[in-house]
Design goal:
heterotrimer, A alpha/beta (279), B alpha/beta (383), C alpha+beta (73), A: 12 helices, C: two-stranded antiparallel ribbon, 4 strands, binds thiamine diphosphate, binds iron/sulfur cluster, binds magnesium ion
Amino acid sequence: MSEVIGNHIIHKYLRHNKKFPHVLCPGCGHGIALGALIRSVHCLGLEKDDVVIVAGIGCSGRLAVYVDFNTVHTTHGRALTFATGIKMAKPHLKVICLMGDGDALSIGGNHLIHAARRNIGITALVLNNNIYGMTGGQCSPTTPHGSFSMTSPYGQLEKGFDVAELARAAGANFVARGTSFHAQQLDKLLIQALQHPGFSMVEVVSPCHTQYGRKNKFKGAVDMYKWLKKSATPVERYAELDETGQKDRFPIGVFVDNDAPGLEEQYYALKEKMRGRKS
Amino acid sequence: MAAGRKKKRKELFALGNEAVVEGALLAGCSFYGGYPITPSSEIMEVMAQRLPKNDNGVFLQMEDEIASMGAVIGASLAGCKAMTATSGPGFSLMQEHLGYACMVEAPLVLVNVMRGGPSTGLPTSPAQGDVQQARWGTHGDHSMIVLSASNVQECLEMTITAFNMAEKYRTPVVLLLDEITAHTREKITIPREDEYEVFNRVVPTMPPEWYKPFEETVRGVPPMPPIGSGYRFHVTGLTHDPNGFPTSRPEEVADLMERMFRKIDQFLPQVSLYEEYLCADADVCVVAYGSVARSAEYAVEQARERGVKAGLLKLKTLFPYPRAATEKVMGHARALVVPEMNMGQISREVKRVNNGRATVRALNRVDGQIITPSEILKAIMQV
Amino acid sequence: MAKEKGNSKVTIYPDWCKGCGICVAFCPAKVIELDGQGKARVVREEDCIHCGFCELHCPDFAIVVTEIERCPK
Ligand SMILES: Cc1ncc(C[n+]2csc(CCOP(=O)(O)OP(=O)(O)O)c2C)c(N)n1
Ligand code: SF4
Ligand code: SF4
Ligand code: SF4
Ligand SMILES: [Mg+2]
């Protein structure tokens, strides 16, 4: 088995002129997801100069400033649009989007499905905490039916999105789901995603105790990780369960694994062809 | 198309929108991201043909105008000269990102071919209703360069100018056209290479560890490296310090805001573009821009024939408002006529400069029709 | 990746620890506890099996687990 790629590695990728600890709450799953992202970049041997983190607005988006890559903190919901411009202009760069669930699926839902459809070579991380963390706990498009938030004080009546299913339907090349509790698996999923051509999306189920847990009968951050441990089920095993078995569980793992060429590959190949050279 | 014979300038019979593309490509535009909308779509369609053939050209049709501006800013950060074009409804959608571009000092060109509004308005009719929106449409206090063009040749020239200003001052530049200018087809001359200037953004030359992306410089405009060139830094729409890190410390906030204003204000004479036509001895001066300036030119000539000393101040820069040029004509003109296809968006600027010295007569039309020379002539003769 | 007990050094940076308790709750060898100030503290380092969980799941990158370095005998 491979060696633990621990925090001594991560520290090398943090910005030393930023104040630590970071601004996120104690136990916030987003920090764990950031760790997994850094380890994946490290394991793939990518140069810092070649990595671009494009973040949206939310607690999730706040992560970008802490890492020593090219970092762009954009507007709420629109990270993928900036990333698309960057990737098309500089296709050799590894462009990674960090978005929250509100960010990627509510205000930015249109951009998510179109990025997936056009298969642009971006790896998108959706840090799904089922809530608007940054703005104080309003419901998001992934807040589960029946759960409580500042704007669903009597229980959410709407259904939540299945993020992975949405990305699959929109045509993403690679779709996976992990959790902040399963950090090692998350490393592997991110490594796969980063190596994929075209659009890859990894949903990271990431606890927000401050805004979601407290309102939904979780005793503390740890309690939320215990819930993840219990309910996240490898997709293969999940598929074998009957309906009662699947209840209160959700699948993690790889859902879509295609390798259609990314838009930027196709575009530059077309340019070459038009210049009359062999591509 | 005539084969490019040496020394001879190429001539084209082009729409205003097509001339924008010619100008953009001469200026070095290598990225277009947009969403179709009348009456700007020809810009996008011609770009779709031309950019893929260019060395580094990238063309993208995005899912909406918000995405278009996002992609354009991304490409700009990655080192491209980037642009988009739209019309009223799309311009409204672009406002949040226009402000983002101001804040992160991303050079880009946004062409807005104005049509009747508000809302879906008059998609195929001319108007000049977005002038103040171009200046103040995005939230927060900010500088903005807004240019205009009144004929097809100027569409080409002002697009080059727009790119040059964007690159020089690290700022978004809005070029306002109206439906008439955009859809007029006339002969234009493509300037020879030695006949126009192209400015490329200044890139840093110090070692990366020393580079501060938003630091004050002599010009007030920090150098800007393309993403991926070894200068790793943070870009954010949050108010930031010279390193690009978010800050709310009052002195750092003030420094940033003041620098962003100063970097454009200190170049006012270079940024304020206008043309004077028969202004030197004018008693009555028309202040106009866009297609209306063409009608005004004709009206001024007719007024002269009738013995009225009329002149035309044609504005090519709308913002920062060319105050000095206006004050100059006010020195001798007893009356100013400001014809506009809106309810008075530039005449209010003229009145502010005027300070009660001359009579300012606004001539407004908002029915989707062009203001004719005879209407302007009538106003000249009346004041 | 679990290793033998007694070979690992667990370092916690108290300045970065926010006391969320994740490391405490999930350490299989109960190596870490929260102290009176609500910061994680190593109490049974000798039991650490170097599973890596605490290091991978600390949201604040405040834990480093390394092998104890011994001079060759
Ligand atoms: C256009 C716009 N609308 C609203 C906001 C306010 N806002 C900031 S973050 C946010 C929601 C964040 O939730 P999510 O994307 O789930 O991220 P999290 O904080 O949970 O990680 C909202 C609504 C904004 N910044 N911009
Ligand atoms: S509010 Fe929630 S998402 Fe935001 S930092 Fe706190 S725990 Fe994380
Ligand atoms: S996981 Fe990290 S932040 Fe949380 S208690 Fe342990 S050391 Fe502290
Ligand atoms: S490495 Fe494993 S055994 Fe050792 S302290 Fe961390 S969680 Fe406990
Ligand atoms: Mg959220």
